[in-house]
Specification:
Oligomer: single chain
Helix content: 25-40%
CATH superfamily of the largest domain: Vaccinia Virus protein VP39
Largest sheet: 5 strands, parallel
Structural class: alpha/beta
Strand content: 15-25%
Number of strands: 10
Shape: globular
CATH class of the largest domain: Alpha Beta
Number of helices: 12
Radius of gyration: 22 Å
CATH architecture of the largest domain: 3-Layer(aba) Sandwich
Bound molecules: S-adenosylmethionine
Strand order of the largest sheet: 8-7-6-9-10
CATH topology of the largest domain: Rossmann fold
């Protein structure tokens, strides 16, 4: 029998005293709801997840907004480590054009702008692996799939890794409803996967084109399991939005909600918070996502009484991460500062884009 997550007891009073006289107002997110356990970890290594055969679409040409690409890999980033494999493992990815195309245009030497569909853009702004079946992804979705039961609602079809694990594990499910916002993803992935299912399994699957946010607000149905994975990575800039999704999902959930990478993203928020203070990083010079903005404001007040202890920084940062609720529609994540990056050029771009005042000789 499935057990529910233990009730989290974070704070009972409405105000908490963290540093000297600083008081923090608890935001009205219910972190004690047993249907969502913010400490549940999906970064769990289980070899079986790598060995399970999965079906993926064939490669497509690298044109348009997104395409499928599979490559053998001998090295992989596994959570926080680099691992070398004894034999190559084929990894399938959906790749998308760089988001920098939303902010920059390339001109020729006469100053004429080059059309955005020109392949030159993919050389200047490296395409981004949007989703794939890397070892980390497999482990994380395997951990979630092991919890699926009853009526399942999924945010994000992606490469259909999660539902493939659910069926492979023969989880006691009744149906699986998948919301996918991107029609091209559905066209690329659906048929290959659906054709691999038995008739009975096929009957259980319902893929709907649309956003999980709209669906959660409009549907009258409720679900035993809600699994959400509509964001790109465990960057803490997503956390306010994940809390927003959880708030939308709770009224429609009779069982449990899992969010891909939630605990990892919260942990990064806390670890970064400690290092901002240690390095006296000038957060106020940067545009910040709603969670980091709250932390920055707390820090400015707390520092008037001296430097807060590492323990209080961790406690406050975690509380802020768990209780800041904001749809990502309400903030431009790409313009907000983050140390989370996959390359040095990513870090450079983010530092430039998130700085309030451009760097000059004076500052
Ligand atoms: C990381 S992938 C999901 C991977 C998936 N869990 C799997 O099993 O392979 C994210 C997917 O969510 C979709 N998506 C993004 N925002 C969405 C939204 N608001 N509602 C529904 N789908 C969304 C993306 O188009 C993408 O296909």
């Amino acid at each position: 029998m499935e057990t529910h997550a233990p009730k989290l007891k974070l704070w009972t009073p409405k105000y908490i005293k963290i540093h000297g006289s600083v008081l923090i107002w608890r935001y009205p997110i219910n972190t004690q709801d047993s249907r969502f356990d913010p400490s549940w970890r999906d970064d769990v290594i289980e070899q079986e997840a790598i060995d399970i055969p999965l079906v993926f679409p064939e490669d497509t040409p690298p044109t348009g907004e997104i395409w499928v690409e599979s490559r053998p890999r001998l090295k992989e980033r596994l959570f926080n480590d680099d691992v070398e494999l004894e034999k190559p493992r084929r990894v399938t990815s959906i790749v998308k054009r760089s988001y920098m195309l939303n902010y920059y245009k390339i001109a020729d030497n006469q100053g004429n702008f080059i059309p955005l569909d020109d392949p030159i853009y993919n050389f200047i702004f490296q395409p981004k692996t949007w989703m794939n079946d890397s070892m980390s992804e497999r482990y994380m979705m395997f951990a979630a799939a092991k919890k699926a039961r009853g009526k399942v609602l999924v945010g994000g079809l992606g490469l259909a890794i999660y539902p493939q694990f659910v069926f492979y594990l023969q989880r006691p499910i009744q149906s699986i409803t998948i919301l996918e916002k991107n029609a091209t993803v559905i066209n690329l992935v659906r048929d290959t996967w659906i054709n691999s299912l038995s008739d009975e399994q096929r009957q259980q699957v319902n893929i709907i084109e649309g956003s999980i946010e709209d669906y959660l607000q409009e549907t009258d149905e409720s679900f035993d399991t809600i699994y959400m994975d509509t964001w790109e990575d465990a960057d803490p800039r997503f956390v306010p939005h994940l809390n927003y999704l959880v708030q939308l999902a709770l009224p429609k959930c009779t069982g449990q909600i899992q969010c891909w990478g939630y605990a990892m993203a919260v942990q990064s928020f806390v670890d970064y918070a400690v290092s901002y203070v240690k390095q006296a990083f000038p957060l106020e010079d940067y545009y910040l996502d709603p969670g980091l903005e709250r932390f920055s404001q707390w820090l400015q007040k707390a520092q008037k009484d001296g430097t807060p202890s590492e323990e209080s920084i961790k406690t406050v940062a975690r509380e802020i991460a768990l209780t800041t609720v904001k749809s990502q529609e309400a903030y431009d994540r790409h313009r907000c500062f983050t140390p989370f990056a996959v390359s040095y050029s990513d870090i450079q771009r983010n530092m430039v884009m998130s700085r309030k005042k451009p760097v000059t000789a004076e500052n």
